[in-house]
Design brief:
47% of the residues lie in helices and 21% in strands. The chain is of the alpha/beta class. The protein has one domain (9-233): 3-Layer(aba) Sandwich (Rossmann fold), CATH 3.40.50. Strand 2, helix 4 (85-96) and strand 3 form a beta-alpha-beta unit. Helix 5 crosses helix 8 and helix 6 (162-182) runs antiparallel to helix 7 (186-197).
């Protein structure tokens, strides 16, 4: 299963620093480009508008933050936040090629962002909640950061049951890990299966979000149940 321990902040930061140079390429290859569609579905729920201040937690290499930044012009701002330095450096390089976009980057812990309460009109988090030491605490911090009525979308692997769980496990072991092995990143992607096993299922995510103070929480399966997006209203 690899040596990266799910929920260990130092291990997760090390993992994403290591895979950052190949992350986008592997995402395109392993999802057949569908991850871009899933991210746009998450973005559609948030419904970004001109003048808003939006947050991308666990922003990685910045693709969602840059999409959001296109929508908040004029007068808006997008802040991309991640705990790992290497993905943020790549995000900054991408943003430098589009200097007209209102986007900023900050290295910080998604469990303790240091931002003021109600800072954001809306937020996204893609493939981040599953990697936090405490997903429930992550949802509480996300709720704190949103103004009343603000929307958030949390995109991640789903934790399915039955036949779908078997299919997901086979895809991870027989497709994802072997492809990652060719890139010298086998243990980094073997980590995925263990991280999904500890991740709350859709119904549990809804319950945790409501406990965190969200007024509405709906988990919507994507990709035949292999993925999911948690749609939230503060």
């Amino acid at each position: 299963m690899g040596s990266f321990s799910p929920g260990d902040p130092a291990a997760v930061e090390e993992l994403f620093d290591a895979i950052a140079p190949r992350y986008d390429q592997l995402n395109d290859l392993l999802s057949l480009g569908l991850h871009r569609l899933w991210k746009r579905q998450a973005l559609a729920w948030v419904n970004p508008r001109a003048g808003q201040r939006l947050l991308d937690l666990c922003c990685g290499t910045g693709d969602l933050a840059l999409l959001l930044a296109q929508r908040v012009r004029p007068g808006g701002l997008v802040l991309g936040l991640d705990a790992a330095a290497a993905p943020l450096a790549l995000a900054a390089e991408r943003a430098a090629r589009q200097p007209w976009l209102p986007v900023q980057w900050r290295q910080a812990d998604a469990l303790a962002t240091g931002l003021e309460t109600g800072w954001a009109d809306g937020a996204v988090m893609a493939y981040g909640l599953r990697n936090l030491a405490d997903p429930a605490a992550g949802l509480r911090e996300l709720r704190r950061l949103l103004r009343a009525g603000g929307r958030a979308a949390v995109l991640d692997f789903n934790r399915p049951s039955g036949v779908t769980a078997t299919v997901q496990r086979q895809l991870l072991r027989q497709v994802v890990v072997p492809v990652a092995r060719q890139a010298g990143l086998e243990e980094h992607y073997a980590y995925l299966e263990a991280s999904i096993e500890r991740f709350p299922c859709g119904g549990q995510q809804e319950a945790l979000a409501l406990e965190a103070g969200f007024r509405q929480a709906r988990h919507r399966p994507l990709a035949a149940g292999l993925m999911g997006v948690l749609e939230l209203v503060a």
